[in-house]
Amino acid sequence: MITRTSTYSKNNIATYKILDDLKVEVSVQQNVYGIPLEDLFLMAARINKKRAFLFVSKVLGKHIPIQPAKGILVGALLAARYLEERSGEQQEITSDLLSQFMMDKPGSAEISSFIDDSNPIVIGFAETATALGHAFFEAFKEADYFHTTREWLDEVEPAITFEEEHSHATSHRAYIKKELLNNSREIILVDDELTTGKTALNIIRSIHASFPRTTYTVVSILDWRSDEHIALFKSLEAELGIEIHSVSLVKGTVSVEGQANLLENEQDSPYTIGDIVQNVSYHEIPNPSATIYKDERNHSYTSYTGRFGLTADENREATVWLEETGNQLAGLRTGRTLVLGTGEYMYLPMKIASYMGDGVFYQSTTRSPIYPLFKEKYGATNRYSFPDPMNHSIQNYVYNISPGEYDDLFLFFERKIESEQLDALLEELKRAQVPNINVIYLDEGCE
Q1: Which residues are bridge partners to 439 per DSSP?
Q2: How far is CA 26 from the centre of its chain?
Q3: What sequence ranges are listed for the domain Orotate phosphoribosyltransferase-like (predicted)?
Q4: Cβ distance 131 to 346 under 8 Å?
Q5: Are the C-beta atoms of 84 and 63 separated by less than 8 Å?
Q6: Pairing relation of β-strands 22-31 and 243-258?
């Protein structure tokens, strides 16, 4: 048995008054390692008719800037939790990971693979959990990884498709070789948070229809499924004759009172541009990975993201390149630095940021429309909105950047970006008062 697990009484309830007419109550039943909730998330109102609130993670590097090592450590800690659940035994590495994770300044982001008796297929969910899934995958000495995507590739048939019902962008695809799934290996689905679990059920159905197997595991930082939603998992197990295991750091339930009647265009950042001089430079960095697919502009994706499938050996090769790149880009810094990933392109920029020295923070652009409000302990104190540079029909956002907070901003793109594609984003970022902006993109790589 695992004796360190903490189980909470029904009286362990936290209430979040998000807006005057919206309140969320969280009842924690299990907090495996005793991590304070305030270290894991803040709350915010969500501009979404299907779900009015959002757990805004403080450890993913999506909506709130983090020290990059924190995002890598949370994936490793979740993998340690998976190992303890599977083995039923405490693991020495868990204490080491937890102590680093709880530090104000986490230790090294270099974490050696520590799970050597399993060879799963790990899947991260786009867009928020692409980095979390990748960090979790790195704990395995032998495994394969891919993340789902909302990208659309012409003339390429995805191996699986499924829907995320509550999302603002619902359709997911997986552009992987079908051979990767045509086996009986365990599938591990990685997401940051389960509220209903319907997204996980949808992908399990999609995989099982073409590539049946006996065992699936769903891992998440937060698991807020109700008894009704857990029953849906049991029902699918019985229907398909499978086992679905669940692993999380925090488990409980959520109840909601009221609603948020918000408009999409409300409350963008009020900051004026001021007299900042924005120095923008462009840097092409090597892409040593194979270029499997190209976008509509004939620019190459990299295979190192895992979007098209990634082996453990390929990931170890990528880590060498990421460290070299981080050391090189560190020479461009002038002071306090924000590394900004874009959309699903989260993990590689975060890993590079971890090698760029002290005073470096990381987060990513997002499609998620959150209602911004300048309020203490609220998850989105400001918002910058702009069209996605790669697809101007899609609106993107960045949150929680105070004017003058950073000396340098490193803006990462997976594929080559033309300067005119960035005009709207750079104009919006003038409000953030960052004097030095370095635009980083990958070259065309190897054919």
Answers
A1: 282, 411
A2: 22
A3: 40-253
A4: yes
A5: no
A6: antiparallel
Cα end-to-end distance, the chain, whole Å:
51
- Chunked into runs of 10 residues, the chain (447 residues) has average pLDDT values of 42 88 94 95 87 94 97 97 95 94 82 94 95 98 96 85 60 90 97 94 94 97 97 98 98 91 57 73 87 80 93 95 96 98 97 96 96 94 95 95 97 92 95 96 68
Q: H or E segment at 394?
A: strand 391-399
In this structure, are 76 and 166 located in the same domain?
yes
In terms of domains, do 85 and 176 share one? yes
What is the structure's pLDDT at 292?
A: 75
Rounded Cα gap, residues 143 and 126, in angstroms: 19
For residue 3, the model assigns a pLDDT of 36
Range of the structural domain that residue 207 is part of: 72-253
How far is it, in rounded angstroms, from Cα 354 to Cα 362?
A: 9
Residue 266 CA: distances (Å) to CA of 17, 46, 258, 355: 20, 12, 19, 38
Place of tokens 């552009």: 175
Tell me the chain's radius of gyration from C-alpha atoms.
21
Residues in a beta bridge with 362: 66, 339
Give the pLDDT of residue 274.
60
Q: Which CATH number is 322's domain given? A: 3.40.50
What is the distance of C-alpha 186 from the center of its chain?
A: 22
Asked if residue 291 and residue 197 are part of one domain, the reply reads no
| Confidence at residue 151, expressed as pLDDT on a 0 to 100 scale | 86
Task: Tell me the C-alpha distance between 447 and 435, whole Å.
Answer: 37
State the pLDDT at residue 106: 83
**Residue 206: CATH number of its domain:** 3.40.50.2020
pTM reported for the whole predicted model: 0.93
Q: Is 10 inside any structural domain?
A: no
Tell whether 162 is covered by a domain.
yes
* Residue 429: inside a domain: yes
Q: Give the residue from 383, 401, 380 showing the smallest Cα distance to 270.
A: 383
